[in-house]
Amino acid sequence: MRVFVYGSELSAATAAAALSWVGHHVHWLLHSAQPWEALEQAGWLRREPTLFDQLQHSVAEGNLMLVHEVDSLRRCDIAWLSLSPTQRDDAAALVSDPAMHTNPELLLVNNSTFPVGETERLQELMQSTQCSVSLPDMLEEGRAWTTFTRPSHWLLGCDDAASERLVRELLRAFNRRSEIFQVMPRRAAELAKLAINGMLATRISYMNEIAGLADTLSVDVEYVRQGMGADSRIGFEYLYPGCGFGGPNFSRDLMRLADVQFSSGRASALLEQVMDINEQKKETLFRKLWSHFGGQLAGKTVAIWGAAFKPGTARIDQAPVLTLLEALWAQGVHVRLHDPAAVPALEDAVGSRDDLATFSDDPYLACEGADALMLVTEWKTYWNPDWPRLSKLLNAKLVLDGRNIYEPSFVASCGLTYRGIGRRADPTA
């Protein structure tokens, strides 16, 4: 098929790479806010496994063409939109363009993170013979290529058999292991995507609340997590307490769901609590540091491992580290931070500061002269550190584990003081 992809989001890059990889002829128009010259230098794109290499390969093979005008839309069968929530007007401008109306059988696939009902609104701007479907973005950052090419499911918002058949053919190469399409009305698909992330966020925040209670009651939350997860009605997914979640898609989907509820006259106290809990948890490591030193933090030096909002990405959008840094700097703490991918994004966000030193190669450099270590992002390189070396490097021998990836008793046996999220080496301490 001939596919026109519009957008500079991760979802657009992944669709362009994957669809051209399986033989479709893809014309990719990047959004003016981030043309190819800027996108190809983006750390988040280069850090995605397989994706950047496949884009380059598809361009070299000729199945992927980077275009600068809408005109190539005239020769396409599919218009695939992958835009951000702030680019709704650009989507409307595209579907209103004369090039869009040349082919009366052109199908619009809305893969953007737009409000519920937006696919129907775009349909109203198209010719009466043209159709639109909602195919919400289900990608996971750090695993974008895998989640597109080996998906567990697609939410397909579709109201006619012909459009469904065309989408199935478009994605047939990725639907061979099992039936992955869940077909439903367009609005239902858009709301289902938001509801999924709302549920996942609720599980995380609930588990963080339980971790806080476990701390108060001198209970190791790991026992509680195991007990909850063993119940088949609950399971273990998204049941890990931590120092808060972030990320562009997860956070804005929650805000979008809250906006949908508010505009419908059904404001959600639950979602407000979920978001409030998450913001509070972003400061939990700071509060543990404050407690350990009795509030005397001025002049202290803290090492931080991890800035990205999750492992496998170079992005720091709504990342817990941003809130944590503000709290530390407000108390006169000097920070030495290591992240294997997100240092450039962090430096762009906070600028050059005398109270911040950054490292991207050796994580132990961040610990030199530090009083304590905070684990914020659970990159695999941090999972099995040289504990005797850390014990010598950290002046106060304090480890604050924001992702509960370490075994408290083992860390303590190495001569360090351990504090996690609802976990500690000595529950009575």
TrEMBL record:
Family: Belongs to the UDP-glucose/GDP-mannose dehydrogenase family.
Keywords assigned by UniProt, alphabetized: NAD, Oxidoreductase
SMART domains: UDPG_MGDP_dh_C
Gene3D superfamilies linked: Cytochrome c1, transmembrane anchor, C-terminal, NAD(P)-binding Rossmann-like Domain
SUPFAM superfamilies registered for this protein in UniProt: 6-phosphogluconate dehydrogenase C-terminal domain-like, NAD(P)-binding Rossmann-fold domains, UDP-glucose/GDP-mannose dehydrogenase C-terminal domain
EC nos: 1.1.1.22
Catalyzed chemical reaction(s): UDP-alpha-D-glucose + 2 NAD(+) + H2O = UDP-alpha-D-glucuronate + 2 NADH + 3 H(+)
InterPro entries, alphabetized: 6-PGluconate_DH-like_C_sf, NAD(P)-bd_dom_sf, UDP-Glc/GDP-Man, UDP-Glc/GDP-Man_DH_C, UDP-Glc/GDP-Man_DH_C_sf, UDP-Glc/GDP-Man_DH_dimer, UDPglc_DH_bac
NCBIfam families in UniProt: NDP-sugDHase
Protein name per UniProt: UDP-glucose 6-dehydrogenase
High-level lineage: Bacteria, Pseudomonadati, Pseudomonadota, Gammaproteobacteria, Oceanospirillales
Entry keyword NAD: yes
Residues in UDP-glucose/GDP-mannose dehydrogenase C-terminal domain copies: 303-408
